[in-house]
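This section describes the prediction task in plain terms. A model, or a person checking by hand, is given the sequence of a single protein chain and must write out its three-dimensional structure as a string of tokens. No templates, partner chains or ligands are provided. The sample shown here is typical of the held-out split.
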Amino acid sequence: HQDIDVTHPDFFSNAKQAGYIPPNKEDCGQPGFTRAERQRFEIILSEGRLVDAYRHMHKEQDMESGFSWCGHPIGKYRGKRMRIDYFLISEELKGRIISCKMHGQGIELEGFYGSDHCPVSLELSPQA
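The expected answer:
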């Protein structure tokens, strides 16, 4: 979870849950984008020797189709999107990645097929 993985980093970092005040300030913000969650995610990647396949293939932010979750089309979450669906692979497999794609785009939820999450696909080359 990096700033590049959301459309509005400040919004998600400062989001408040109705009536809930977390005991630890590191847990403040939108679930899925709190400082504590982001730190734990980095530890999981590092200690597990895992690679985020999508970010490995797409180094830059793609504001149109680089997010797998989109907020409700009406209200405060309109236009707010996050990349919260991942393919994590072992470091040994990263050389076999052919493609990793998000199959939804835009705030009108094209390709989301009735869900607030869009499909994500990963294609690997055959083992040599």
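For orientation: The chain has a mean pLDDT of 85.
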